[in-house]
Amino acid sequence: MEPDPYDRRCGSRQVLDRIGDRWSVLVVLTLADGTKRYGDLARRVDGISQKMLTQTLRGLERDGLVTREVHASVPPRVDYTLTALGRSLLDLVSGLEAWATTHLAEVEAARDRYDTRMSGH
């Protein structure tokens, strides 16, 4: 059976959910320039809760996109790194980031027009 993300039973839909998730995109982009500690990720991704960062990292690790390395130190140090599979996402998520920042003003203007039009009804 060929992967079909339009079929709700297909695992490819779960993959799309993971890589299309806002937090996953931001974590992958943060790891693009190398290994980061948990605290570094938490500081960089503004607004992410500790619970959500932990869930995101676990999901990315489970899907083979991130590795987690625990160092025996006091306090314990945990490093996160993109795998080769995770790095293969960089062009895609960098493109999403570039599109969002390039077209932000246009999207905001469209929202304003929509909101103005809808408030008149």
Q: What value does the average pLDDT take?
A: 95
The number of helical elements comes to: 7
Q: Radius of gyration, Cα only, in angstroms?
A: 18 Å
Extract low-pLDDT stretches.
none
The fourth-level CATH homologous superfamily is: Winged helix-like DNA-binding domain superfamily/Winged helix DNA-binding domain
What's the CATH topology label? Arc Repressor Mutant, subunit A
Beta-strand residue percentage: 5-15%
Order of neighbouring strands in the sheet with most strands: 1-3-2
Given helix and strand content, the structural type is mainly alpha
What's the multimeric state?
single chain
Query: What portion of residues is helical?
Result: 55-70%
Describe the global form. Answer: globular
The end-to-end span amounts to 48 Å
Instruction: Kindly state the number of beta strands.
Output: 3
Q: Just name the CATH architecture.
A: Orthogonal Bundle
Protein name: Helix-turn-helix transcriptional regulator
InterPro entries: HTH_HxlR (IPR002577), WH-like_DNA-bd_sf (IPR036388), WH_DNA-bd_sf (IPR036390)
Organism: Micromonospora globbae
Keywords: DNA-binding, Transcription, Transcription regulation
